[in-house]
Amino acid sequence: MLLRIAPLIFVLIWSGAFVAARGGLPDFTPWALLTIRFVLAALLLLVLALCIREKNPDWRGFRQRWAGVVGAGVLMNGLYLGLFFTAMQEVSAATTALVGSLTPILTALISGPVLGERFSPLQWLGFLLGILGVGLVAGMDYLTLDVGVGLAAAFAGVLAMTFGTIWHAYAARGLPLLATNATQMAASAVLCFVIMGLVETPRIDWTPAAFMALGYLTIGVSLGGMGLYLLMLKHGAAGKVASNFYLTPAVAAILAFLILGETLRPEAIAGFVVAMAGIWLVQRKPAAGGPKPD
User: Fold this and answer.
1) Nearest to residue 161, comparing CAs of 272, 80, 47, 89?
2) Is residue 291 predicted with pLDDT exceeding 50?
3) Residue 33 · residue 81 · CB < 8 Å
4) Helix (H, G, I), strand (E, B) or coil at 197
5) Under a CB-based contact definition with an 8 Å cutoff, are residues 121 and 282 in contact?
6) Does residue 191 carry a pLDDT above 70?
7) Is the pTM of this model over 0.70?
8) Domain locations in the chain as residue ranges
């Protein structure tokens, strides 16, 4: 049951992160926020892992593959989020969203030769519709992207999430979920702490908005959202799982309209519909007797 509704819950949680970050980010410097977030998430996951004994955990495999687990976690958490925070300081959120929409199709392209995943022509059409849907939500001209540090950071973030997803699907399949996630959060905290010391003067203002944002980003996103993402990767194809990211810009726009009173443009609704159609094509079950992509 959880696996069936996991994509919906994941999209809602991940989309809410944009609203939470917008409310709390003015009170933190980016790498300081990420460091605190990952430290808290790692501690909470460690407590859960000790209290909840997962069924038949492959501890021997975990000890043998811990380096792959750490590498994938650092890419999917620390580098991905840090690079996107950096990008949003230099370019618009629309540009960042559009570049981020390349993650699912890039994941699908690489997962073929690496993981042996196969996709039908209709599924590839779904990936393209997802990008188009994000473009409509972003409300921008595809031909007017400014090349610069921000855009480079966004593309680097896409590569970090893509390779982190594939690496995790390859190295962590069958490993205990809570212990794996806790290890990845702890490693990401170390990375973000080092980068924080190199690139910024940490600033933390403990305002009510900062507490709420940190709480949501830590418990909601790092524990709930990332836990669901790893759960879906454990049971599904990496390309299909990554396609859920197509909906996050549209749902974030709707949440910002409902919670922050921001304007909801008709193009955003159209983009939501197009992205939904794309995800349906990617994730639908093949017809009986037809080809069966992974």
Assistant:
1) 80
2) no
3) no
4) helix
5) no
6) yes
7) yes
8) 2-283
